[in-house]
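Format is chain and fold; as here:
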Amino acid sequence: MNTENFHQGVPLPVSLHSKTLKIGKDRLYRLQDAVGLPVGIENLAFSFSIEDVKEQGVFLDKLIEDVNGFLILDLHNIYCQACNFEMEMDELILLYPLDKIKEIHLSGGSWQESVYAKRGFAEIPTMILFLKKFLLFCHLYLANVTILNI
């Protein structure tokens, strides 16, 4: 779900509900049928509440479990949520299905008023690079993960 003009808006979090899961799975099945490949879903940077933050990993796991999908883990989006909701990154990362990661995104950002957000080519925070190394060291099953610096 997006704002009206998704090219200018922020992707909005979707609640963990049976109806949204059903719609999401239907769209993933259609996408996979069209391209003939597994489809990946990326975690979001934006959330309305701490509950949204804590549900996102569960939602994505349930969304991709029946469609042979995978997780695109955006470490900067994890960093945004950690900053904006005063959580530790290592706590947040454990809320995601780490065994379903096939791609890791890295990017930078900055503070805008009281919110930390992705800002294209800004410097990547050191904490994100540390977390990337931690993930790759601790989870040997991530050997086939692609790391993109966006």
Summary: The radius of gyration is 15 Å. The CA atoms of residues 39 and 69 lie 5 Å apart. The first helix runs from residue 18 to 35.
